[in-house]
Amino acid sequence: MKGENQTEIKCRSNETVVIIGAGPAGLSAAYELIKNGIRSIVFEKSDTVGGIARTENRNGYHFDIGGHRFFSKVEYVNRLWQEVLGEDLLTVQRLSRIYYEGRFFNYPLVFSNALTNLGPTESLLIVLSYLRAQLRPRREEGTFEQWVSNRFGSRLYNTFFKTYTEKVWGIPCNQIRADWAAQRIKGLSLVAALSNAILGTQKTRSLVDQFRYPVNGPGMMWNGFQKRIEDGGARIHFNTVVSRLSCEDGRIVGVTCSQKGQVFNMPVGHLISSMPIDSLVRTLHQKVPSRVADAAERLSYRSFLIINLVTF
Description:
Blueprint: E1 2-3, E2 17-20, H1 24-35, E3 40-43, E4 55-58, E5 61-64, H2 75-85, E6 89-93, E7 96-100, E8 103-107, H3 111-135, H4 144-152, H5 154-169, H6 178-184, H7 190-199, E9 210-214, H8 219-231, E10 235-237, E11 240-248, E12 251-259, E13 262-267, E14 270-273, H9 277-283, H10 290-298
Parallel strand pairs: 2-3, 2-14, 3-10
Antiparallel strand pairs: 1-13, 4-5, 6-9, 7-8, 11-12, 12-13
């Protein structure tokens, strides 16, 4: 490639597959291409792989950037993870709890724990609220609030779902679409939760009590993908920012990148992007309708702050 400054990056002109981002999506795409005999070039703006699913290492201590558990009902995905890590991919018991009114509630629900913490009166009121929702459900299910209330009753919605969801996402529940709720807690209902709590059934994805986890944290998985990608002949270029995508006749034909102060242009045969949507739209400059650009600019993201304390 040639640009304002010469770089060492080389490629095969229009046959090149460019992947933007070396997080889980970008790395998975690059690995699938390698397995099908297709090499790619991956551009990553940071200095490591994994994105927010990476694991930081400080003086021998491993820190996860959030909780990234490995669980899928898609057997192909499970085999892929196992293929990359082998024995280093452990089966771990899940321990999740909700802190409410000064007490810890197990999740998935444990009947004795929930009854003890809520008390018989509150438990009865929750059940009555659920029965009322089944007999007289809300006619509209356009929002998260309406969708959850119809399946759990308004009392349980206000007790657990409302405060937790608004704290995590920073959006009022009556402004979150119902289809988002359906995707996040698909198949879960009060009956399913109670069935799991009393009988131990676990047919719902939200109620699983086991998951897979790399022995040294989630970043180990993506480091494994990186090694296999590079062993297969693909390249991952770190500290490389994609600033522009060039289009002709409705197709992306080139990228403009900067790396360590050098700017270069590169022809593209195919492009896979895992960068944030608003950033992707900006790189297209004037090639998108104004309503799309406006919608992208209105997208908001939640800040994520983790504090790790090392004690000796």
